[in-house]
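Write out a record, fold above all:
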Amino acid sequence: MVRTKLLFLLIFVLVFTWISVPVVMSYSEISVEISNNLSFPLEKSVQFSVELPGFKVSNNISVNGGPAKLPVEIVKVANNIVTLKSLLEFKASEKKRLMVRYGDDISKEYTKIFKPDFIGNYFIGFGSDNLYIVSMATQNSVKISDSKGKVLLDKTLGLNETAGLILGKDQTFEIRSDKPVFAELSSLKLDYVRNSSDDTTSVYGSYFTIFIPKEIFVSAYKNTHIKIQNLKGEVVFDGDLPERGVYSNLSLKPDFYTIETDVPVSIQFGYSDDNIYTIFYGNLNSFKGVSFGDIIYSSLYPDTTVTFKTKDKIYDSENLKTPGDYSLKEVVKEFSEETTEYEFVYIKFSAPVFIYSNSSSGNTGGEQIPSIDGSGKTFVFRTGKIYNFDSI
C-alpha cells in the first residue's frame, strides 16, 4: 500500500497597520490603532512596539480593547520601548483602537500567546503531488517557482479564486504573492480508501476557503452560526452550533469549500483511517475536537497544567514541568479497516501546548511544525510512530 500525506502550510504575514498616539491623562496610557486590511473576519496574534514615556521595569502593563482586557505578553523591553503581543478578533476590514496602560497600580495578568497564522504571502515548501492555492484578496499576483527559479505558475487571482499544480516527486517550491494566500499541499489520491491515502490537518479561525478531500469536523468554543458551501454556492450546512458542539461530515465530495462562522472554531479536515499523525489547533487555552487514536499533548513552556476530558471520562490534571514533556492518552482503542474511528475530546491548558493525534499505524508523510515565537529559530516537537514500510 502507498501511504501518503496531507500537509497544511503555515506562514506569518503582516496584514495589519498600527498607529501609536500618546494620550495625556492623569494615568499613563497610550492609544494604539490596529487595522485588519482584509475583507473577511480574522483572529490574529499581533505584535507591536510602543514608546511608553516614564516606563519603569517595576510597572505592569495591560491592553484593553474597549471595556474588555485583552491577553497580553511582554516580548521585549528596551528603555522606554516595549514590544507587546496580544490576540485580537477582527471583523472584515475593521479598525480597532487599543489602550495600553502601564503603572504600579495595573494588575499583572500576562499570558503566553502562541497562535500560528494560516495565511501568508511567502512560502517555501517541499512535497509531491497536489499544491492548492486560494487567494484571500482581489487582484492578487501569485507566482510559484522551483528551487532553480523556474516559474511553475504565474497568475493574478481574485478573492477566493483558486489555482493549483501537480508537483514532481519530492520537489522544493517557493510561493510569492502580492497579498495573502492560503496554501495546501496534499498527496491524497482518489479513491482514498483503496489508496490508503490517509491524513487530516487543522486550522483555527472564523473564515477559510480550503480544499477538503472528504471529511470535516468543526468544533465550537462558543455558540455560533456556521455556513459551509462550495465555490459554486452549493450549501452543505447552514445552521447553529452550541458551545462545545461539533459538526461532522464524513462524505464530502473533493472540492474547495468556504467555512464561515461568527466566532473562531477548530476545523479538522482531510481523510482519516489508520495512517494518522497530525497537529490540532484550538484557542488560547483549550482545544475542542476529535481524536483519531491516541492524543498526545506536549508542553512548549515550563510548568504547564493540563486537564483532559473525553465524552465518558475526566482525567486528573497533570503538570508538564519542562518544554517537551508530554502525556499520551489512549482514546480510540479499536480500529477497523476502511473506517474512520474518532472520539470527542476537550483539553484545557495553562500555557500553549502542541496537541497531536495518531491512529493505529504510522505515517510516512510530514507535518509542518510552527516555531515557538514565529522567528523560525526555536522548535519544540515530538515525532510520531516510525515504521520501515519497505519491510512490510
User: Anything to note?
Assistant: The chain has a mean pLDDT of 84.
